[in-house]
């Protein structure tokens, strides 16, 4: 017969400090669990048994939370534990009973309520507020109007398809389903619906399979994304035309022109340049280090500065009280639309800031004299997407080779051609 735990007084329980489970006696299996500053009651009990795969009988053990201490007193914990143990003796599983009660109450828990709760739980791990806004925007636009008020436990395949097959307008003025017309958006939305429904199941608000899952489910009723998705690549300048473009760009003295020139020389993304601050620049070592929080891959990125990029920074004025290198006229971060306006003033149509990264990549592929040219250019673009590149990052980011590459790129950007600029699409 198991040894009974000593029955502790309320004062003795209040003096327990060490982490772990402490038997308090009075009811078999009643413990105070301490983990740092957290204190909570738990009842451990056996209920029935089952035969495992080896043919052995295994006792099923329950661990039932009874609430925090001292909000729940010792006397209350013992009373609740006695009630639960009686249920177990009568063959009632308290955990299953609690789950059924939660599912019953979830009839008033809507999809929208669960979606907002999911976002609140997860937003701390997302990189920035923009990610939270993207989630909220797609759900508010496409899901909440159709299924937002559905009980979460009533969401089925029909409800998911109602969202993904809703009619939307197309560029030519006709209509089509969201899945067919805006497949990239619809695919992201499907993944978000799946995550919310998984969260609801784990949280005890629904049961069964996930109706938003792709494998073994929606893939049998919707065309594969690769079959309907039309990828619009960023318009990019042929690299043979970059010298002519740079000469035209350097005739302009505005902040947006300087920012674009710096973006081209560093092969950086628009947001990385527009948000660049002076404390990220090491003029002594001629490097620009962007923090992980500002990088798409959430990994800090060091950019070696070529002589022209270095000279550009040296000539940029510093504004007292403003750490931005390329601030907007009112002092904040420059809008991405500033570059579009610049292109309009330069009378260069159908071109994007991001497209210059493609121009750089195409030029780098054409280089024959740079060792590890593909790995080096991928690192320059902060594309950490294969084992070989990850290994390079793990070593030293190949800064000497990248410095050579960026220096050669800057020299090439000063090579003027006489051909008329023509825009064509490249993969970024």
TrEMBL record:
What InterPro entries would the database entry show? DNA_brk_join_enz (IPR011010), Integrase-like_cat_sf (IPR013762), Integrase_catalytic (IPR002104), Integrase_DNA-bd_sf (IPR038488), Integrase_DNA_bind_dom (IPR025166), Integrase_recombinase_N (IPR010998), Phage_int_M (IPR053876), Phage_Integrase (IPR050808)
User: This chain belongs to which protein, by name?
Assistant: Tyrosine-type recombinase/integrase
Residue ranges annotated for the Tyr recombinase domain, each copy included: 232-408
Q: Per its UniProt record, what Gene3D superfamilies does this chain match?
A: 1.10.150.130, Integrase, DNA-binding domain, Intergrase catalytic core
**Organism this protein belongs to:** Aquitalea aquatica
Q: Which GO terms describe its biological process?
A: DNA integration; DNA recombination
Q: Which family does it belong to?
A: Belongs to the 'phage' integrase family.
The entry's keywords: DNA integration, DNA recombination, DNA-binding
A molecular function GO annotation: DNA binding
């Amino acid at each position: 017969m198991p040894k009974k735990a000593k029955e502790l007084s309320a004062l003795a329980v209040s003096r327990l400090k060490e982490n772990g489970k402490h038997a308090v006696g009075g009811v078999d299996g009643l413990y105070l669990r301490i983990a740092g500053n957290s204190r909570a009651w738990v009842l451990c009990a056996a209920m029935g048994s089952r035969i495992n795969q080896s043919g052995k009988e295994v006792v099923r053990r329950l661990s039932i939370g009874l609430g925090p201490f001292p909000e729940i007193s010792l006397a209350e914990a013992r009373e609740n534990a006695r009630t639960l143990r009686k249920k177990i003796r009568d063959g009632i599983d308290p955990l299953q009973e609690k789950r059924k009660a939660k599912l019953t109450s979830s009839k008033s828990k809507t999809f929208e309520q669960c979606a907002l709760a999911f976002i609140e739980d997860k937003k701390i791990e997302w990189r920035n507020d923009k990610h939270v806004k993207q989630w909220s925007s797609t759900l508010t636009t496409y899901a909440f109007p159709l299924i937002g008020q559905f009980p979460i436990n009533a969401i089925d395949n029909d409800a998911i398809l109602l969202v993904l097959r809703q009619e939307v307008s197309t560029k030519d003025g006709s209509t089509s389903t969201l899945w067919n017309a805006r497949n990239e958006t619809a695919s992201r939305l499907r993944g978000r619906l799946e995550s919310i429904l998984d969260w609801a199941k784990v949280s005890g608000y629904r049961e069964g399979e996930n109706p938003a899952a792709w494998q073994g489910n929606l893939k049998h009723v919707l065309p594969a994304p690769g079959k309907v998705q039309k990828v619009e690549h960023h318009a990019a300048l042929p690299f043979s035309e970059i010298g002519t473009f740079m000469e035209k760009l350097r005739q302009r003295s505005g902040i947006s022109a300087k920012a674009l020139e710096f973006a081209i020389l560093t092969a950086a993304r628009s947001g990385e340049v527009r948000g660049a601050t002076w404390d990220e620049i090491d003029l002594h070592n001629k490097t620009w280090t962007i923090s992980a929080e500002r990088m798409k891959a959430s990994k800090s990125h060091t950019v070696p500065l070529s002589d022209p990029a270095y000279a550009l920074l040296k000539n940029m004025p510093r504004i007292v009280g403003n750490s931005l290198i390329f601030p907007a006229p009112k002092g904040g971060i420059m809008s991405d639309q500033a570059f579009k306006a610049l292109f309009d003033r330069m009378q260069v149509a159908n071109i994007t800031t991001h497209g210059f990264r493609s121009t750089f990549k195409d030029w780098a592929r054409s280089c024959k004299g740079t060792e590890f040219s593909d790995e080096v250019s991928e690192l320059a673009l902060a594309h950490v997407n294969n084992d070989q590149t990850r290994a390079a990052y793990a070593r030293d980011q190949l800064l000497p080779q990248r410095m050579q590459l960026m220096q050669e790129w800057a020299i090439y950007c000063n090579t003027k051609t006489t051909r008329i600029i023509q825009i064509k699409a490249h993969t970024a």
